[in-house]
Write a structure and sequence with these properties.
By secondary structure, the protein is mainly alpha-helical. About 70% of the residues lie in helices and about 0% in strands. The chain has nine helices and no strands. Helix 1 crosses helix 4, helix 5 packs across helix 9 and helix 7 crosses helix 8. It is elongated and about 60 Å long.
C-alpha cells in the first residue's frame, strides 16, 4: 500500500530545508538539488511540489511571513494592556531568539536576491501597515497623544524596528534584550499620554 504523504507538511519541510541551505551556503547556493538533499528528498520529489527554484523561494518567503504572523496573532489574543501588547508586537519584528534570527537572516537574503533577480517580486512584508494599525488602535483607545501624526510615527517606528533588527542580528553582544525592550517601550511611551 502506498504511503500517504501530507503535502502541506512536505512543502513546509522543503521550505525549512531551503532555510538551512540559505543559512549555510547563502541564497546563491540554494539550488534545488541542495535543498532536495537537505530535505532528504530526490530532486524529482522536490519538483513535484515546486516546478522552479523561484516558486520554492517564494513559498519559503511566505512561510517566514506566516510564522511571524502566527506569533503576532498569539500576542494579539493575549489579555494584556494595549500598551504592553503594542510593545510585544513590535518586539516580535526583531530577532531575539534562534527562530526569529533564522527568519531574519533568510528574509534579508531573499530581499537582496529579489533586488538583483529580474522577475522575482518581493512581497510586501506588511510591517508598515501593521505598525500604522497599532497606532490607530492606540488612538482609538485614547492612549495616543492628540498631536501625534500617525503616518510619521509609523515611519519612525518602522525605521526603529528595522534598525534594531539589523543590530540584533549583526551585533547581538552589543545590543541585549533588555536594551531593545527599553528602546521600544520608551518610544511607544513617548507617543502615548503619560501614565498609560
Amino acid at each position: 500500500m502506498p504511503k500517504k504523504v501530507d503535502h502541506t507538511q512536505r512543502k513546509k519541510q522543503i521550505a525549512e530545508a531551503a532555510f538551512q541551505v540559505i543559512l549555510n551556503d547563502g541564497i546563491e547556493g540554494a539550488s534545488a538539488r541542495r535543498i532536495a538533499a537537505q530535505a532528504g528528498l530526490s530532486l524529482g520529489a522536490l519538483r513535484h511540489y515546486f516546478q522552479t527554484q523561484d516558486e520554492l523561494l517564494h513559498f519559503a518567503m511566505e512561510e517566514v511571513k506566516a510564522g511571524v504572523g502566527e506569533r503576532m496573532q498569539a500576542i494579539i489574543n493575549q489579555p494584556i494592556p494595549l500598551l504592553d501588547k503594542t510593545v510585544a508586537l513590535l518586539l516580535e519584528l526583531i530577532p531575539l531568539n534562534d527562530q526569529s534570527k533564522v527568519e531574519m537572516e533568510v528574509w534579508l537574503a531573499f530581499t537582496v536576491y529579489a533586488r538583483h533577480k529580474p522577475g522575482f517580486a518581493l512581497h510586501d512584508d506588511q510591517i508598515y501597515a501593521i505598525i500604522l494599525h497599532l497606532l490607530h488602535h492606540l488612538d482609538e483607545s485614547k492612549l495616543l497623544k492628540d498631536e501625534i501624526d500617525k503616518e510619521l510615527e509609523a515611519e519612525k517606528l518602522y525605521a526603529l524596528t528595522d534598525g534594531l533588527a539589523l543590530h540584533a542580528l549583526l551585533d547581538p553582544s552589543r545590543l541585549n534584550l533588555d536594551m531593545i525592550q527599553n528602546v521600544i517601550r520608551s518610544q511607544v511611551q513617548g507617543i502615548c499620554h503619560p501614565n498609560t
